[in-house]
Amino acid sequence: MPNYFPLKLTARRMLAPTVAHLSFIRDDGMPVEFTPGQFLQVHFHYADGTPTKRSYSLATIIEHGPEASTGISAEIAVSYVTGGAATLLFESLEIGGRIEASGPYGRFCLMPNDSNRRYLLIATGTGVTPYRAMLPELARLIADRGIEVVLLFGARTPEELLYGEEFRAFAARHPQFRFVPCFSRELPAPGSPHDHPDVRRGYVQEQLAEFSPDAHTDIAYLCGNPNMVDACFETLKGHGLPVPHIRREKYVSSK
Ligand SMILES: Cc1cc2nc3c(=O)[nH]c(=O)nc-3n(C[C@H](O)[C@H](O)[C@H](O)COP(=O)(O)OP(=O)(O)OC[C@H]3O[C@@H](n4cnc5c(N)ncnc54)[C@H](O)[C@@H]3O)c2cc1C
Questions:
Q1: CATH number, residue 204
Q2: What is the CA 215 to chain-centroid distance, rounded?
Q3: 201 and 183 in contact (C-beta within 8 Å)?
Q4: Is 47 left (phi over 0), alpha (psi -120 to 50) or beta?
Q5: What pLDDT is recorded for position 253?
Q6: What distances in angstroms separate CA 15 from CA 18, 94, 203, 216, one per listed residue?
Q7: Pairing mode, if any, of strands 39-45 and 98-105?
Q8: Of 50, 79, 105, which one is at a domain's C-terminal end?
């Protein structure tokens, strides 16, 4: 039975020209419970009254302690698409406005029994949000198990590099975490904030060979655009990664 609850919008900021970071609190006084990597569903009606829903990964970073699955806010990054029903809902939602949600759902999470030496985290667009939520857990795994992490993040341009400063700052604090932004259309200008030796040009799937994916050391996570997920899945299988070591979340429309 889905767990339905009301969410109240508390803050909105634009992460990129068409991507909003929205912060909600539960409007029933309950905490937001989830495991990093999970998503919510938002329930609403089309103009003709037909009920519908859309899914959004939780981006919330909960910094404190082992009770890390409980927080106060539900943060999501919403990519606005022209004519989108949920896009209209979110664009017109005022601070203090309420929506209905359910969840959490999904198993796109770090697994406690994994004994891999490295995670390859791969995303395009808002598909990077689960990895933002995972940062405190990754920091613990780096400290406790000495793992390495490569975050390959595909964006068209530097202004579309969602949470880019946060990932770069995390990489600076954790040398075992490499943040590798891949720009398909426009590279950062020399000396600009996203200019860094780890920046690559092209699509994420084209960069995988550089990191020599290895069945003995690696577990990969793929999130975002379904075509990217399929392309990376095939490439990683080609490098010998077994299917259970390639975990996927495709952002398909749930219309
Ligand atoms: C598990 C899961 C997690 C998801 N997490 C997120 C998330 O964290 N953030 C997020 O923004 N979305 C996420 N999505 C996608 C999201 O659920 C919606 O599909 C998306 O927000 C579009 O909804 P909409 O109602 O605005 O557009 P719709 O009314 O569904 O679509 C309107 C038009 O836009 C097209 N369209 C839909 N999506 C895109 C797109 N991305 N690019 C270009 N055209 C598009 C449709 O084909 C259609 O023609 C997730 C999907 C899944 C399955």
A1: 3.40.50.80
A2: 24
A3: yes
A4: alpha
A5: 79
A6: 8, 18, 21, 37
A7: antiparallel
A8: 105
179 within some domain: yes
190: containing domain: 118-250
As a whole-number percent, the residues of the chain with pLDDT over 90 amount to 90
In the three-class reduction of DSSP (H, G, I as helix; E, B as strand; rest coil), residue 180 is classed as: strand
Question: To the nearest whole number, what is the mean pLDDT of the chain?
Answer: 94
For ligand 1, residues with CB inside 6 Å are 39, 54-57, 76-79, 81, 83-87, 126, 129, 249, 251-255
pLDDT at 176 over 60: yes
127 and 241, same domain (yes or no): yes
Report the pLDDT value the prediction gives residue 174, as an integer from 0 to 100: 98
Instruction: Say how many Å lie between the CA of residue 2 and the centre of ligand 1.
Output: 21
Q: What is the largest CA-CA distance in the chain?
A: 54
Q: What is the CA radius of gyration of the chain?
A: 18
Joined together, the tokens standing for residue 66 give 């082992």
5-47 residue pLDDT tens: 999 999 999 999 999 999 999 999 888 889 999 999 999 999 8
CA angle 110, 112, 116 (to 5 degrees): 75
Residue 31 has phi, psi (to 5 degrees) of -75, 160
Residue 62: the pLDDT is: 84
Instruction: Give the closest residue (by CA) to ligand 1 atom 20.
Output: 253
| Cα–Cα dist 240/122, whole Å | 17
Model pTM above 0.90: yes
Token readout for 57 is 């990964």
Atom 44, ligand 1: residue with shortest CA distance: 81
* Number of domains the chain is built from: 2
- 160: which residues sit within 8 A by CB, 6+ positions away? 16, 17, 19, 125
